[in-house]
């Protein structure tokens, strides 16, 4: 079953930024499929590919505002070349590696690929690595949270301890005030008694011979 027909105007809307870059590079290449004009935008490079003249011209508009007018033969070549350009763009940050796995592990990778409907076994490895990375990040975050909780508990215990000490100090201060109040009342009562009996309270001392 062939690829579904995509009209040029719709083709320009998909991956619009990448297609604008692709057509710009094509127009800068002397043997590129298209050339650029100041008024009409992109046109087929008929100097190199004269057969691109045959057929009706379709028109599309790119995201950068430039138009493109090409015949069906030129359009088909553009689509095929863009697919290669897109693949190369996707692969430019990838590094090719070759690994040797045990048969059991290879079978498990194949199973996961089929079970999830993934196109390549590389996707399985990518998902495993992402899951491991996310798990590590979660464990680190959890450890930080646990540490904060422990610190908070210690701080709460210290606060409660200080509050208890403050309460004890308040109790001691209250008891001291009560004691001072009693002593002050006793002294005042003593002074009043001395005045009633005409006794010099400051110089008066009780002895064994003093009258009670």
Overview of the molecule:
This protein has 212 residues and is mainly alpha-helical. The chain has a domain at 8-91. It is built from five helices and four strands; from the N terminus they run ααββββααα. The strands form two sheets. It has a two-stranded antiparallel sheet. A two-stranded antiparallel sheet has the order 3-4. β3 (58-61) and β4 form a beta hairpin. α4 crosses α5 (121-196). The radius of gyration is 47 Å and the shape is elongated. The N and C termini lie far apart (130 Å).
Uncertain runs: 206-212
Q: If you compute it from the alpha carbons, what radius of gyration comes out, rounded to the nearest whole angstrom?
A: 47 Å
Beta-sheet strand percentage? 5-15%
The number of strands is 4
What characterizes the major β-sheet? Answer: 2 strands, antiparallel
Mean pLDDT: 86
Q: Specify the number of helices.
A: 5
Could you spell the SSE succession in H and E letters?
HHEEEEHHH
Write the layout of secondary structure elements.
Blueprint: H1 8-11, H2 16-28, E1 34-37, E2 41-44, E3 58-61, E4 67-70, H3 72-91, H4 103-116, H5 121-196
Antiparallel strand pairs: 1-2, 3-4
